[in-house]
Design goal:
Layout lengths: L2 E4 L9 E5 L2 E5 L10 E6 L5 E5 L2 E5 L7 E3 L10 E6 L5 E5 L4 E5 L2 E5 L10 E6 L4 E6 L2 E8 L4
Antiparallel strand pairs: 1-2, 2-3, 4-5, 5-6, 6-7, 8-9, 9-10, 10-11, 12-13, 13-14
Amino acid sequence: MGVWRGFEACPVKPRARRCHGRTFVTYTTADGLAHDEVRCVFPDSRGNVWMGTYGGVRRCDDEGPPTLALAAADGLGEDRITAIFQDRHGSMWFGGHHGTLTRYDAGRFTVYDTTHGLPAHRTWSIAEDRGGHLQSVVRHLITSTSIGTHGW
């Protein structure tokens, strides 16, 4: 798998680059990125690369431009994605700027937010503990939830 890099708001355009050997391939909105600010990049267990932007999520294989687009209009909790994670069962999780967590599995979305006890702060990262509980880092605190493998 090549090395991927996302770029936030910076004067250097474009915003996503893939390095494969000595070659750099650059992706922009013209190539299918949802937004020019790539906030997070996550390689999954199947060899795909997921990019969270301020316009939703894009999935690429390691050899080309985005092949799947996900946005709030499709069922994503929000378009401003700041964290991506894959759990032990293969479900993808997307953390949002406004505190939503969205589970994406087999083409279906499940959105969790403050009504499920989550804080209304930007999600910086997502992980899973040994017991299958999701851990998320939001604005100077770590939250643990039973969302996912324990009954939600």
